[in-house]
Amino acid sequence: MSLRVLLIDDSLADQRALRRALEKDTETRWEVEQASSAEEALERLRHPPAPDALVLDFHLLEVTRGGERPLEREEVDLFALVRVKVRELGPLVATHPVHLHVEGTDFQGKWDEASLERVLDNLLGNAVKYSPRGGSIDVWLAEESSGPEGWVRLKVQDQGMGIPAADLPHIFERFRRGRNVAPVISGSGVGLASAHRLVELHGGTLTVESEEGRGSCFTVRLPRALSVRESQVEQEQSA
Q1: Against a cut of 0.85, is the pTM above it?
Q2: Architecture of the domain spanning 74-229
Q3: d(C-alpha 85, C-alpha 202), whole Å
Q4: Where are any strands of DSSP class E within the chain?
Q5: How many C-alpha atoms does 139 have within 13 Å on its Cβ side?
Q6: What are the pLDDT digits (tens) for 24-71?
């Protein structure tokens, strides 16, 4: 049996995760199609043949299906992961120069690599999407404190349209986008909400500083290891 699923999400990590999940269904051949916005998805639904399933956001789907997937923590080199993601933006260097700034030498931590990849996809993708041609993107990676109990900090700054002050308190809520975003710019309004939740699950924080017309700077802070409280929560989830 062959079925079609329509995915509304800009994250390459999300697409890969959905495909891996569908591959476990050996009795059905799933064909994954992508819509860049909720508006595009609605337009497709109006015209046959309609997809057999609709997925707005794979991570949020996991939440609604009965609880968040526990993080698969392993030793991760965040510098190596960030460098790969920055290199993936290489083809865009003519229109969006990307500069990586590194302060420190140790960026190892016990993290879920797939989740952090998803966060990076979202932050870097948004920096490109909401920046004008020629607008540079700066990525900073720094050690806040060393040792197994230390923290690392990641910043992604663009020179794009920025976020209106009235929208800033709600920017990490689901289905919220800045009121200055034109309808032609793709996006479903769930990427930042999901990224915020994934960072939160790591015991970290995702914050933003922005001014309309002058760009945005998103800051991720991550502890290298689990706190006692996080360890207890993960043990309860896996029990």
Answers
A1: no
A2: 2-Layer Sandwich (3.30)
A3: 20
A4: 2-8, 29-35, 53-55, 74-77, 98-103, 108-111, 137-143, 151-157, 205-211, 215-223
A5: 23
A6: 667 777 677 766 655 566 676 677 776 655 454 555 444 434 355 678
